[in-house]
Amino acid sequence: MEWYLALFLMLGTVCLIMFVGLPVAFAFFAANVLGTFFFINGDIGLVFMPMEFNNAINFGLAPIALFLLMGEILLHTGVAFKAIGAIDRMISRVPGRLSIVSIVGGTVFSSLSGSTIANTAILGSVLLPDMIERGYKPSIAMGPIMAVGGIAMLIPPSALAVLLASIAEQSVAQLLIAGIIPGILMAVLFFTYVIGRCILDPTLAPSYTPDESYLDQPIDISINFGNKTVFSAQYDGNNRKRINRILPFFVYILPLFIIFIVVVGSIFFKIAAPTEAAAMGSLAALGACYFFKLFTKFIKITGIDGADFTWRAIWKSLVETAKINTMILFIIAGSLVFSQALSNSGATDGLLNAVAAMKLSQLKIVIIMMIVLLFLGAFMDQVSMLLLTLPFFLMGSQSFQVMFNIDVIWLMVLMLITMEISLLTPPFGLLLYVMKGIAPFDVSIIDVVKSALPFIAIEIAVLALLIAVPEVAIWLPKMVQ
Question: What is the pLDDT at residue 107?
Fold first, then answer.
């Protein structure tokens, strides 16, 4: 069979089955049955196909589950909501105040969770109702929440970055570190855009005086052991407004940065491998949530509430993590056989040789790869498009990355940014539908898409910057080599 017919058969089967609505894992399995039968020794290939699934049982993939667990713990114990509330207190009178809160809060939560969906859902459920109530236009209310939700794909811990580096057999640590600067740069540009738009058109986000009556309240502090109060005091000084404003930051946010320091710091200073760092991060998340519970049990401070650190919350976190991780592992198992079938069919080599014969430059090849990902992202979820393109882009000695001598860390960062953009691209951008589902008003998918367009443009600008200046992405990971 000609390589282009084999490629059409394999990719066409996957796309067709996903188009009719079946799960992604089933689409890969169906393509695998065809591929192994036709290209791997007929029915013998079908017999040996389950053996390839053992490759999905990979210790290097453990950080995915652990990073997801970190975010689920913070979500179900309520700590994430309290952290956003603390950020809300600290940001006072700025144009588009609540949109700025969503960007800052989303960036902070991105550094604690590897889930883009959780990031968007939390910010939307906490901030969007208040935005709409205060007259914010949907374009400036929904757009920042969706855009900053995707930053979780870049800023470590990122479950998708771990998946990408693990399957491509590249350094997970370097890719996690490489995503920090592009992620922060993107957040700064979102911040600048929102303030600029709201200054030019104040009707987008009507100014209002936040209810800060709580700042005038005296600060009551008591320390309790059992049913006995061993210390009690009240502070009613001139600085109580400032203390009331920043106190939640020290209680709810500062301890959470310990999680980021544990994960990223241990990788950056080569104290632990990514898997061990993810495990320590999960323990740090548990410890932080338990700290909040103990803190408010023994120390009572006005306006400071504890976390819902219960066995039910922990159990729900574990169950949700298991659901997502099981889905990812099934897709990975199917994709591994899919890659082998593509290779045996000659489709991989045929496509690579055809592109090489065109004698394109490295820059043009990279741009073509990003365009392919953007196109696929309009119709597929990120895990599917990643695993569908990896055999051609990164995996093995016969790949675009090897053939055109492309820096692998730089290429993987570009892929992550492109997949982040695809979260917002119609018709099937995942975060578009997450936002439509949580919006507390009657909004069409067209309105959601329009609100995302300016932020898509900003993300494409960052992508173009990284293509033109690769050092933006690769200089930091080079420091940890």
Answer: 83
